[in-house]
UniProtKB/TrEMBL annotation:
Signal sequence, start to end: none
This protein's name: Transposase family protein
Matching InterPro entries: Integrase_cat-core, RNaseH-like_sf, RNaseH_sf
Organism of provenance: Paraburkholderia youngii
Lineage: Bacteria, Pseudomonadati, Pseudomonadota, Betaproteobacteria, Burkholderiales
Location of the Integrase catalytic domain: 1-143
């Protein structure tokens, strides 16, 4: 089994961090959040995420003391989605669904490395290759 953790900005739907791991523990779940803090604010020091709210489900990764202590250290407020209501975490759920549809379904991966390469590759690059293929069709050239 391979775990994918993502951090998605609910305002613009942009992926701020993504991590693929063989073990889906609380430390793997923290990785995309630290990626997002580094990218947006330049550091992961105390209070670097002050004012942010993190929407997540009730998985054991997110309810563990280690996870909650770390996001508290960063100044990020937890916001748990309603139990059995994935639409309350809809932006991230849709991002993960789209990623599965574009990169994962229909492929068989024998280990995590090729899967991680596909899953973590920039989505705009994958979309650009699809658009280039569409533009090369005869109907696209004549219009």
């Amino acid at each position: 089994m391979v775990w994918i953790f993502s951090a998605v900005d609910h305002c613009d739907g942009m992926c701020t961090g993504i991590h693929a791991a063989k073990i889906g523990d609380r430390f793997a779940a923290l990785d995309p959040i630290s990626q997002g803090l580094l990218a947006e604010f330049g550091s992961v020091v105390a209070d670097s995420g002050r004012g942010l709210s993190l929407r997540m489900d009730h998985g054991s990764q997110y309810t563990s003391d280690d996870f909650r202590d770390q996001i508290r250290f960063w100044g990020v407020a937890p916001s748990y989605a309603f139990v059995a209501e994935p639409q309350t975490n809809g932006v991230a759920e849709r991002f993960n669904r789209t990623m599965k549809e574009q990169a994962i379904h229909g492929r068989i991966f024998t280990n995590i490395d090729p899967f991680a390469d596909v899953a973590i590759s920039p989505i705009p690059a994958r979309e650009a290759s699809v658009r280039m293929h569409v533009k090369s069709t005869p109907s696209a050239r004549t219009s």
